[in-house]
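Loading example: each entry is read as four labelled lines plus one structure line.
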Amino acid sequence: MLDAFEAILIDEGERSATMDATSRAAGVSKGGLLYHFSSKDALESGVIERLDALVTADIEAMMDADEGPIAYFLRTSVMENDPLDRAILATSRLAQGGNASASAALRRVRERWGDALRPHTKDAASLDLVMLVSDGLYFNNALEGGNIPGPVPRGTEMDALIALVEASARA
Amino acid sequence: MLDAFEAILIDEGERSATMDATSRAAGVSKGGLLYHFSSKDALESGVIERLDALVTADIEAMMDADEGPIAYFLRTSVMENDPLDRAILATSRLAQGGNASASAALRRVRERWGDALRPHTKDAASLDLVMLVSDGLYFNNALEGGNIPGPVPRGTEMDALIALVEASARA
DNA sequence: GTCTATATACAGATAGAC
DNA sequence: GTCTATCTGTATATAGAC
């Protein structure tokens, strides 16, 4: 049911992600959905909590990455439609729809990433650069909806961008 | 009335930006609002059309800027709450709420900026870098709602970031 | 041009049968 | 646990008085 809710948030926007639409997509009735999530707020909190858990795992993977944390961070900022990407996109939709907890969750996530990357960057401006490029990648993905390929560097263009950022930002 | 609609979109999110709330904020009745904008769609189109006009003026100013187009572009990507910032933020809200015209308008705007900046950058990766840092700045502003100061570089930190980007991207 | 009143639709949520 | 039926609030939009 959380997956169905996320999918509608991502593909059709926050306005379309109603209890009715979610229950239909999950293959249950509205009553059935409300048995598991007693309110819309509970459903939204479910998405946010899952995001927090996924970020914890991602930061561990980032610190262990072969190509280094910065390259890993930028590369995974391009939407691959994995569970973390979807959780971030869905939470962004909630935030833009006015959900304050969602905005707070996204700020918290960004701060956790920043804390993890800080020791690997030269100075504050370098960290800003890395974080903002990542934000930009996500922003473009969020605009596109997650399906349509957006104006986001891929393949060798992405490699060139990573090289450029690392050259000026790496500690 | 457009200003009132924009203000609610920015400050309270797309969900709160109803015809009712807009008319109240504009100091007219719902009927009065609907005399000027015959539907909610017309109101949303009004915001988008104004954005297009403001971007045209901004690109002219960018090409004429003393410190050069890249520095101007990045510096003005930080929310100053001027009419263009507000139009972008409001249109972002509409896009995230599922309005397809708004998403298209934002893509179009981004492309116009990219076209204007391309001759001033070294290569594709450099242009990506500039555009993505700008996107990142807007993304963070959009999350914050436009009032609360966000995790966005200001003052000397912004100068340092601009220097960093220009060093690696300028043609 | 601006208003009030109202039609229509749909959202979130509850009640109770099965 | 899952369903249908229903309550209540609120959104967009229309009608018609002033």
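Residues 40-64 of chain B form the longest helix (25 residues).
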